[in-house]
User: Which sequence fits this backbone?
């Protein structure tokens, strides 16, 4: 076994001049190389017995002794202390030496220092007495007997011990009497403070902390103070602190036991804690299972069962065997389903979550006859059916799918079914209603609206939903009636007003497009009753102005409104958006209105223009295709370079939502000049350059995007990394044979593997195909997709297919595709797209 | 996350009223101005168990394995308001003092 290197510097001082030896020795002393320092100063003292070298040697001995004590080499440390003491009577006695003597059972040497004729300075004698007092209290009564009868350590030992006994027995009067017998200048002074502090607990912890604070770090009673301070920590911090017990700079086990006892822990609880602590922070689930079952009588059989199931999640399904292995009953089918559902949540795949909880709900439904299901069972079924939505907020999708095989459609089906088990959940019912509204599923909207209106007829949120539905149908009078009911109950509900005004505006624009300016004006008048905020008023004024322009070619109102808006980029955006909503192209509008040229009024004006675009989209506004070219020209020379990085990021996002690809690319390029290679702007530049998706051969743009992906991951910008990865996934949906010439596993996109291949055997396509086929057959579709990190879209596609034709058939189809790829043929994917 | 039943000190089948009572008693024991962390834990526990619906959701969806403090509180719960006559029973024994004063680990 190789020897541990000694902590010494290179020696070789034999032939050096004394000055050089001294320099080196002092450097060793300062650097903690005490053995070198000892050698050096010993060598110097042989040349000349200079006092400063002797004191330096004493310091080196002290350092070495402390280092040995810290390693637990107490006898060796004591020998070094004795060497130090033998350097001369002018070397001060170190209390640490006394502590070691006492710990090693040699109190007579310490006691001798305090008996008649000893020449110890008073301060050091007092410190020694405190040390001895602590040992006397620890039960070493023989120490007191070795001291003179008048020595305070001996004289005060009796009341000090009586105080301990009284405290431990909970005898407050006895404690007070015993403490009263101890004078202030007693070696037991710190002991008195400690017991007084303990008497304040648990009602007056601050007072106790103050009393404990009077005990110095070098006191022989400091260990009790530290343990008591540990006990005074709040619960969470206390548990964290005791988990670190026994580590360097952390409380030792005696301290922890004492602190636990001081917090009122009975010995059994302390013993259980030590058993848990022995398992360590990273305990294996099976070790915890064993512990749970060992103590199941105390913990409660049902509780242990519930917690045990949670310990099976990590290694599911193999972990199901752990229960019988620790002597527990194996998991029943429903329990296994529950663990499977929990395990599915760990995968973060919404389809897995949906399947996991749907399976559990179906089993729960089938577990008993419908009449035997308790209200709690029904609620559990409903919650399990809703879990996929709760987990991924799937029903929040702004554009619901119309494909029954898509995730949100399936989630909506399950949530709808859940309402038959639990119709009382207003929040989820309204969420589902809004989802149906966005998906324009009118029949479902009506059905749910009837249900909620019957159940909660006066609820403002239900009334608001009813108003939205009425507005969707163009039933403005009905919507206004509902708004009045809402505002009667909640007069400061601005959202209702804004909704109503926006709907009237949309209706007015439609009428204008149909050539019914009269009806449009009437609708605007109705909206005027509800408009309160500046934005609503501005929209009404702009639309009124447009009606006047279209009807009578009168541009005065519009000019006045634009002047009021400031005439900058923000005003221009407001006017262009209002015109676009009634199909008036910007150039035609400006020609009719004859407005002065809009001039940028600085970054704030530009940001305001972007805000108008965002607000327009948030309100469900649409943008015609011509606006891209118009805004690219009119905003192209705006002061983009003066915007901050976050403002530019936000601007690119807004332009992406608007579909203004030309302008977005320009803004991203401007940002890239300032923040070269910034992943988020590389992404915007790429997407804006290829708005319909990338196709064709790999090029420099793809290389740059790949670099941006690496950098985004490095910087922890996971949102951008995910978006870039989605682009690559779309390029290469099957993980092989894509435009980048990827391997069957799609590894080129996974940077983590980039450096691992140098020493390996070449991984041929044949081997890869064989491995994939074997994996599919061995672990099944779900696990194989997880292991090979299939893109989400492909997972969804395959799962849908598995539901249609069964998993074994999908696996066989996949194997056929891999075989075709392996044989150099173009795979026939038609089955997957039926 | 710690087991909210054990933080509140209520049995597994506690109803709404028992949970509210335990929460109010807990606030008296650790008011926010004196023990912010304790109060926060108490509040979170109360929120997790306030209604039967919350309790079922907790039982169904909370997957965190038990924490050491949960096992301790479950096996050997501490008195939340110890009586004065129990003072002696909940104090360190002389042997624990001796171990610390001797410097034992």
Assistant:
């Amino acid at each position: 076994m190789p020897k541990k290197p000694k902590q010494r510097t290179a020696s070789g001082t034999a032939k050096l001049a004394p000055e050089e030896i001294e320099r080196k020795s002092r450097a060793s002393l300062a650097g903690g190389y005490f053995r070198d320092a000892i050698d050096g100063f010993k060598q110097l003292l042989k040349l000349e017995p200079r006092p400063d070298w002797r004191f330096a040697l004493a310091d080196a001995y002290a350092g070495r002794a402390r280092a040995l004590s810290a390693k637990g080499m107490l006898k060796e440390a004591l020998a070094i202390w004795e060497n130090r003491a033998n350097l001369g009577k002018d070397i001060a006695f170190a209390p640490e030496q006394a502590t070691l003597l006492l710990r090693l059972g040699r109190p007579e040497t310490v006691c001798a220092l305090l008996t008649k004729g000893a020449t110890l300075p008073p301060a050091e004698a007092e410190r020694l007495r405190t040390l001895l007092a602590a040992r006397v209290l620890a039960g070493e009564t023989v120490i007191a007997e070795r001291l003179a009868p008048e020595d305070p350590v001996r004289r005060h030992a009796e009341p000090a011990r009586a105080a301990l006994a009284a405290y431990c027995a909970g005898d407050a009067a006895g404690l007070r009497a015993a403490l009263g017998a101890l004078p202030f200048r007693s070696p037991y002074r710190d002991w008195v403070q400690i017991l007084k502090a303990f008497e304040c607990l648990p009602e007056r912890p601050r007072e106790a902390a103050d009393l404990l604070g009077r005990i110095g770090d070098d006191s022989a009673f400091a260990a009790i103070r530290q343990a008591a301070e540990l006990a005074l920590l709040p619960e969470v911090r206390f548990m964290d602190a005791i988990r670190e017990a026994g580590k360097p700079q952390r409380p030792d086990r005696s301290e922890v036991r004492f602190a636990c006892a001081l917090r009122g822990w009975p010995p059994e609880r302390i013993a259980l804690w030590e058993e848990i602590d022995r398992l360590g922070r990273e305990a294996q689930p099976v070790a915890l299972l064993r512990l749970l079952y060992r103590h199941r009588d105390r913990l409660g059989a049902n509780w242990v069962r519930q917690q045990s199931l949670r310990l099976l999640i990590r290694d599911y399904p193999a972990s199901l065997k752990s229960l019988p292995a620790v002597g527990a009953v194996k998991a029943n089918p429903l329990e296994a389903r529950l663990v499977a559902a929990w395990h599915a949540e760990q995968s973060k795949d919404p389809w897995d979550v949906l399947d996991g909880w749907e399976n559990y709900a179906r089993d729960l439904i089938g577990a008993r006859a419908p009449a035997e299901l308790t209200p709690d069972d029904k609620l559990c079924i409903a919650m399990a059916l809703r879990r996929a939505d709760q987990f991924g907020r799937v029903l929040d999708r702004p554009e619901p799918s119309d494909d029954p095989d898509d995730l949100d459609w399936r989630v909506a089906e399950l949530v709808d079914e859940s309402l038959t088990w639990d119709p009382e959940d207003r929040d989820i019912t309204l969420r589902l209603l809004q989802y149906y509204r966005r998906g324009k599923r009118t029949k479902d909207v009506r059905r749910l609206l009837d249900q909620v209106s019957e159940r909660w007829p006066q609820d403002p949120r239900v009334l608001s939903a009813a108003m939205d539905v009425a507005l969707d149908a163009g039933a403005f009078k009905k919507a206004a009636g509902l708004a009045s009911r809402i505002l009667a109950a909640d007069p400061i509900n601005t959202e209702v007003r804004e909704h109503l005004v926006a709907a009237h505006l949309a209706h007015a624009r439609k009428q204008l497009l149909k050539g019914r300016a009269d009806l449009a004006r009437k609708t605007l008048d109705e909206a005027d009753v509800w408009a309160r905020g500046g934005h609503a008023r501005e929209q009404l004024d702009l639309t009124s102005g447009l009606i006047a322009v279209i009807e009578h070619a009168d541009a005065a109102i519009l000019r006045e409104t634009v002047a009021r808006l400031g005439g900058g980029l923000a005003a221009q955006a407001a006017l262009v958006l209002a015109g676009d909503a009634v199909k008036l192209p910007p150039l035609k509008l400006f020609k009719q209105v004859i407005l002065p040229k809009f001039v940028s009024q600085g970054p704030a004006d530009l940001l305001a223009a972007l805000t108008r675009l965002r607000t327009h989209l948030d309100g469900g506004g649409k943008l015609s295709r011509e606006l891209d070219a118009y805004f690219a020209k009119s905003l192209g020379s705006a002061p983009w370079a003066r915007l901050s990085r976050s403002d530019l990021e936000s601007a690119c996002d807004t332009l992406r939502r608007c579909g203004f690809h030309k302008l977005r690319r320009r803004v991203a390029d401007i940002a890239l000049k300032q923040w070269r290679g910034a992943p988020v702007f590389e992404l915007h530049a790429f997407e804006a350059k290829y708005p319909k998706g990338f196709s064709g051969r790999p090029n420099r743009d793809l290389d740059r995007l790949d670099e941006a992906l690496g950098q985004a991951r490095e910087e922890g910008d996971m949102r951008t990394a995910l978006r870039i990865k989605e682009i690559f996934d779309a390029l290469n949906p099957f993980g092989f044979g894509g435009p980048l010439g990827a391997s069957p596993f799609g590894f080129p996109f996974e940077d983590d593997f980039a450096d691992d291949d140098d020493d390996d055997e070449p991984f041929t396509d044949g081997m890869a195909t064989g491995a994939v086929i074997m994996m599919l057959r061995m672990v099944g579709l779900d696990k194989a997709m997880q292991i090979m990190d299939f893109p989400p879209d492909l997972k969804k596609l395959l799962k849908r297919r598995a539901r249609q034709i069964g998993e074994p058939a999908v696996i066989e189809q996949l194997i056929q595709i891999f075989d075709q790829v392996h044989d150099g043929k173009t795979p026939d994917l038609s089955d997957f797209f039926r | 996350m710690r087991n909210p039943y054990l933080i509140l000190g209520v049995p597994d089948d506690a109803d709404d009223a028992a949970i509210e009572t335990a929460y109010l008693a807990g606030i008296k024991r650790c008011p926010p101005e004196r023990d912010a962390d304790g109060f926060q834990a108490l509040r979170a526990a109360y929120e997790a168990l306030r209604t039967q619906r919350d309790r079922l959701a907790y039982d169904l969806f909370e997957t965190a394995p038990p924490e050491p403090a949960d096992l301790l509180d479950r096996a050997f719960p501490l008195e939340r308001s110890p009586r004065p006559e129990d003072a002696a029973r909940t104090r360190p024994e002389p042997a624990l003092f001796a171990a610390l004063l001797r410097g034992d680990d």
Summary: Residues 155 and 675 of chain A are 79 Å apart (CA to CA). The radius of gyration of chain A is 41 Å. Residues 765-787 of chain A form the longest helix (23 residues). Confidence is low (pLDDT under 50) at residues 1-5, 733-764 of chain A.
